[in-house]
Amino acid sequence: MGAGPVSGGVLARLRRGVWPGANPLRRRTDLFEPIALLVVLAAVVVVLIASFVVSQAVLRDHLAQVNAEHADRHQVSAKVLAEVPGESAVVRSVQVGWGAPPGPRHVAVIEVPTGTPLADEVPIWVDPRDVPVPPPRTRSEATQAAGTAGAGVLLGSGLALGGLFTGARWYVGKRRLAAWEAEWAQVGPRWRHHLP
Asked: Measured between alpha carbons, how far is 122 from 132 in angstroms, rounded to an integer?
């Protein structure tokens, strides 16, 4: 029971802080902040919805590509024929062959990470024409791309909204100061005459 008046007082102060009400000292510029706050809150809702829609669209698109890549590519075991000379700190090139015995029908040079131990055979991914291709993307990569797209929309929109709101508050504050200076220029000389 003791929390009612306290929370009521806090809520009343918060409401007065956000909405100036019928205060006789209220200026037109005092209405800017509560209206701008409502506009920003509405924009935040729109941005959240847009972020969700964009991330879902990107996820659908990437999942369709993942499914197409999995349907279009298959893994084969390729026999290591030779290591191709050349120095690289990251990858090394090897010549591999695969296909029906007695000899490989297809030969290609592929790159494998430097730390990969070379056995007699290495798994590679090929397309329907038996051309080596990168492994198909995974569902987690599609989900990560969708999350990145949604986060990009949120971050970009948040920065734009924050910049607009800050710029608008600066402009309104500048107008308030100019109005106060103009009023003081009128009232100040009259007060000086009443000073002892």
From this structure: 12
DSSP code, position 55: H
Quote the strand ranges of 44-103, DSSP E: 74-83, 91-98
Along the 196 residues of the chain, how does pLDDT read in single tens digits? 444 455 567 777 666 666 666 666 667 777 777 788 788 889 999 999 999 999 999 999 999 999 998 899 988 888 887 777 666 667 778 888 888 776 668 888 888 776 666 667 888 888 888 888 888 888 999 999 999 999 999 999 999 988 988 888 888 888 888 888 888 888 877 776 665 5
Q: If we measure between CA atoms, which residue out of 53, 50, 55, 57 comes closest to residue 146?
A: 55
Radius of gyration of the chain (CA): 34
State how far the Cα of 168 lies from the Cα of 31, in Å rounded to an integer: 13
CA of 45: how far to CAs of 76, 131, 149, 172, 179, in Å?
49, 48, 17, 25, 34
Which H or E run includes 174?
A: helix 139-194
Q: Are 95 and 108 in contact (CB under 8 A)?
A: yes
The three-state secondary structure class of 83 is: strand
